[in-house]
Write a structure and sequence with these properties.
The protein is mainly beta. The protein has two helices and nine strands, in the order E-H-E-E-E-E-H-E-E-E-E. It is globular and about 35 Å long.
Length: 107
């Protein structure tokens, strides 16, 4: 089981974490949403809970709750800039389909 970061994602995540006073790492997960079923959640981890799995990559802690882990295990997180838009992009080997807008996915 692992979640990994590209160099671009690690740099952006570190900047994001540094802006938060109590940031311990990056929290990744999924929530029910959209036409395909799930959407990704990315936020700063201010605490690590008993049901969290913690990965380390490129010097950063990646925190995933146990319920989300089966949906994103093996995922690589990248950070991309396209014109004026920038976002984290997930390469998730578990995805079976995505909605047309790219906001949600199914496993």
């Amino acid at each position: 089981m692992a979640i990994t970061l590209t160099e671009a994602a690690a740099k952006r995540a570190q900047t994001y974490i540094d802006k938060h006073e109590h940031g311990l790492g990056l929290r990744l997960g999924v929530r029910s949403s959209g036409c395909s079923g799930f959407a990704y959640v990315v936020k700063v981890a201010d605490a690590i809970h008993a049901d969290d799995q913690v990965f380390e990559d490129r010097g950063l802690k990646l925190v995933v709750d146990r319920k989300s882990l089966p949906f994103i295990d093996g995922t690589e997180l990248d950070f991309v800039r396209e014109g004026l838009n920038e976002a984290f992009r997930f390469t998730n080997p578990n995805v079976k389909s995505q909605c047309g807008c790219g906001e949600s996915f199914a496993v």
